[in-house]
Specification:
Structural class: alpha/beta
Number of helices: 5
Helix content: 25-40%
Largest sheet: 6 strands, parallel
Strand content: 5-15%
Strand order of the largest sheet: 3-2-1-5-4-6
Length: about 200
C-alpha cells in the first residue's frame, strides 16, 4: 500500500515538520507544492521533525500543475477541506492503486480551483463543536494517514478470512455442524472487534 501526503502551499514550518514525521512513521511520501511559506533549510523544520527529517521521503514540486501531471501514478486522490459534506471514514481511502491525501494551506485551505475541479473527491474530518473552525494541519494529516492504514488492514483481514473460508474442506457425511445445516464448516466473516470501524 502506497500513501502520498501532499501539502499545497503550506505556511507553517512546524506543521510541515510534524507531517514529515508522521509520513516517516507510516511509510508515506511527503510532497510539498511551492510556493512555501518558509525555507526548508530553516532549523525549525528539522526541529519539528526531530532527528527524523533527513530520513523523510520529501519531494518538492514547483507548482500544482507539475504534481498533477504525475498524480495518477501515485494513486487515487482525496482532498481534505473543513466544510466538505462527505466524512473521510465514509470514503474508501485505501484503494489498491495507492492513496494520495491532499491538504491546503493553514489559513486558506485548498485553492478554489482545486475545490471546484475535485468537488467529488473532497472529504472532511468530523467536528461536533461549532466553536472549532478547523483542526491543525499536521493533526489532520496524522488522522488521515492512519485511517488509510486502518482501512487497508481491515481489507487485508477480510481477504484472509474469505480465503480461509474457501479453503475449509466440506464435512464428510450428512451431519451438520452447530450453527449450520448445509454440511459445510461455517467460519464467521466478521473481523475482530478491534479492527472494525466505530459504530455510527
Amino acid at each position: 500500500m502506497s500513501i502520498h501526503v501532499v501539502l499545497v502551499h503550506p505556511e507553517i514550518h512546524w506543521n510541515t515538520g510534524n507531517a514529515g514525521r508522521t509520513c516517516l512513521a507510516a511509510g508515506a511520501t511527503l510532497h510539498l507544492i511551492e510556493p512555501l511559506g518558509f525555507s526548508l533549510d530553516e532549523a525549525q523544520v528539522k526541529r519539528a521533525g526531530l532527528d527524523y527529517w533527513e530520513h523523510v521521503d520529501v519531494r518538492v514540486w514547483p507548482n500544482w500543475e507539475a504534481f498533477e501531471r504525475e498524480m495518477p501514478r501515485f494513486g487515487a486522490p482525496f482532498f481534505f477541506e473543513t466544510n466538505a459534506t462527505q466524512l473521510f471514514w465514509d470514503a474508501s481511502l485505501a484503494p489498491a492503486e495507492g492513496t494520495v491525501l491532499v491538504f491546503g494551506r493553514e489559513t486558506g485551505g485548498l485553492p478554489a480551483a482545486l475545490r471546484e475541479q475535485y468537488a467529488d473527491r473532497i472529504v472532511a474530518l468530523p467536528m461536533t463543536s461549532e466553536r472549532v473552525r478547523s483542526l491543525n494541519l499536521s493533526t489532520t494529516v496524522a488522522v488521515a494517514v492512519y485511517e488509510v492504514l486502518r482501512q487497508g488492514r481491515v481489507s487485508e483481514l477480510g481477504a484472509e478470512s474469505r480465503e480461509l473460508n474457501c479453503k475449509l474442506p466440506r464435512e464428510q457425511g450428512g451431519g451438520s455442524q452447530e450453527g449450520g445445516s448445509s454440511g459445510t464448516a461455517r467460519v464467521s466473516n466478521s473481523l475482530p472487534p478491534e479492527t472494525l470501524p466505530p459504530a455510527p
